[in-house]
Design a protein that fits this description.
Layout (H helix, E strand, L loop, with lengths): L3 H11 L4 E2 L2 H6 L14 E3 L4 H14 L3 E4 L16 E4 L6 E5 L4 E4 L5 H9 L3 E2 L12 H7 L6 H4 L6 E7 L5 E5 L11 H5 L8 E8 L1 E2 L3 E9 L2 H13 L6 E6 H11 L9 E9 L1 H17 L4 E4 L3 H12 L1 H5 L5 E4 L2 E2 L5 H14 L4 E6 L4 E8 L4 H20 L18 H20 L24
Length: about 475
Amino acid sequence: MLANEVREKLIAIVSRENFEDSKTERLVYSYDATPNFQSLPDAVISPRNTQEVAEILKVCNEYKVPIVPRGSGTNLCGGTCPTEGGIVLLFKQMNQILEIDEENLTVTVQPGVITLDMTNAVEARGLFYPPDPSSMKISTIGGNINENSGGLRGLKYGVTRDYVIALEVVMPNGDIIRTGGKLAKDVAGYDLTRLMVGSEGTLGIITEATLKLIPMPETKKTMLALYQDLSAAARSVSKIIANKIIPTTLEFLDQPTLKVVEDFAQIGLPTDVQAVLLIEQDGPAEVVERDLQKMAEICRQEQAVSIQMAASEEEADALRTARRAALSAIARLKPTTILEDATVPRSEIANMVQAINEIADKYKLDICTFGHAGDGNLHPTCATDARNHEEMERVEQAFAEIFSKAIELGGTITGEHGVGAMKAPYLEWKLKKEGIAVMTAIKQALDPNNILNPGKVFAKDSRKRVVVTR
């Protein structure tokens, strides 16, 4: 628990009603969406402004108290579990949209703003914020930035990093810095904005963000391509890109995923095929029509058994919503659901899908595979039961092989979920010792007392999904 002196100093900063250290409140913030992984914080604090965040960090830095920034807890790699205790920092009171600037096409927000709320606000002005993580109904902008979240539209529009143009950040010693600005060009010094994006709360605490917006697309259309051959579906993805067509969305769902999603959403998804591609294009009407026709032709050439066009925007939205519900649908199967992400070059999608299926057979596991096939980001997801220790060992071994295969194919261990605690032991596979050394030097320079989200990104031991009690 916190020393009484530290506790009183923190209460003096935020007031008693914004400081919680009861067992119940601590338990609520001891876990995120990562299965079977938990650790109690010593306290939970809800600052009201940037200055309070700065004062909190000064105290924590002085007394070497760990501090973990947290959004809505949708993280899937243990990134917001306070594995070394300390303070969980909540941004429920810093949740305002500060400005929508239509002249500069930007929106400025506090970190606690819900992603979908901000998206709806800018769309009401005829503007568009493309990043759309599946958790967008509940995830926060601060969490999206810390994890560099992706989404269904990542193929055409990129990920969170591509839209963050300015940040206000509180450093571990309490200093407040501002990076970037409402600028199309800025090469003054190191790109500190990009350094912070995706740093998982290990380098600084983001208290304000300015995000780039674009005009709303003129129109959009959606189609499903159905396959009886997984490899044919994967080949279609590569061939579409090779034909210099970049659709907004190019999603892959295998038959096990289709069955559980349809049972959950009940919107008429086909479940008698081996795989589907969910394809969407937006832009000028004539471009959308031309691209969809060409993509349909490519899919048929690659043995698609049927092409189905969404008859209305309502039908298209139902398809997108069903895809975003894949994790929730699979989670109904067994007590524990482990959703991972591995990314490979688009040309290796077919090989990666085949490898996942072979690994699942080898370890006698049920693995559903879906994901953002257009940008090579697949989500092999295993429904299991953490109480079955023998099966959990097989699950761990299977995912280790999946990550190894992704790297072998020129890919990476995570495309959008982050490293956190769960993938830290595998990071060296991707970056090698030299890359880890560079990251370590940056961390030590900015956070010498290692108070910001300690135990994340940098591995201490082999990966284990265990409950940590404190």
